[in-house]
Model the fold of this input.
Amino acid sequence: MNAFSLEGQVALVTGANTGIGQAIAVAMAQAGAEVIAAGRRDCDETLALMGAQGRGMRLDFSDPMAARDVFAAERIDILVNNAGIIRRDDAVDFSESDWDDVMDVNLKSLFFTCQAFARAALPRGRGKIVNIASLLSFQGGIRVPSYTASKHGVAGLTKLMANEWAAKGLNVNAIAPGYIETNNTEALRADPARSQAILERIPAGRWGRAEDIGQTAVFLSAPASDYINGTVLNVDGGWLAR
Ligand SMILES: NC(=O)c1ccc[n+]([C@@H]2O[C@H](COP(=O)([O-])OP(=O)(O)OC[C@H]3O[C@@H](n4cnc5c(N)ncnc54)[C@H](OP(=O)(O)O)[C@@H]3O)[C@@H](O)[C@H]2O)c1
Done:
């Protein structure tokens, strides 16, 4: 057996049309999984990159319960909760809608999607969940209060679910990506002073690529990581070590 292979596994990746989600879907397909690329719109580019290993599904987490029936309908072995949004404003001005929108997609949807997955996977006694956390699961950040609250929540819920389900065969872990070149960080990269300051603090000396997260997600979904439970794995070029 190749402990790093996903051969024979069915994986569902949320927010798979772009960025980190796309890279995770493609890396999992390359590792042998059959991948369901879920998005609030069609994931055409991701499907083209995955070829015969992939298929699409519409999941829009503006309804946090959107995935309630997905896992009862077919066997899905691996769930990657990647969909996420960010809103920026001074804490003193931050609006209720910017709070609720981010918490609903990043935290409430993630929990209830995990719950729906677990209800189907627990009777089988096996399954893997990979949640996408953030450096802001550990740090405070600036001008992103709902994002920081949601990602601290993702780290906490990852541990809670691991505590409840590890002995029942489900691995629940998270990845905390560092600064990755995607739409999510476009505003930071468009600001030359901010972009330079970030780069200077990264021991690896470069921004992260979505593929860096894709390969880690494969590892946390494969048999090689069967004894890893409740971990939030930093993939940040050393940022948090500094
Ligand atoms: N880039 C980084 O440096 C970084 C660092 C730490 C953590 N992260 C996390 O990594 C994850 C992926 O982000 P990214 O960097 O790849 O950014 P991105 O390119 O903006 O991707 C975000 C994904 O989430 C989807 N999404 C947003 N709202 C949704 C909804 N209501 N229902 C379903 N899907 C929805 C987006 O779909 P649309 O394209 O339709 O909007 C997109 O597929 C997020 O959880 C983010 O917080 C990113």
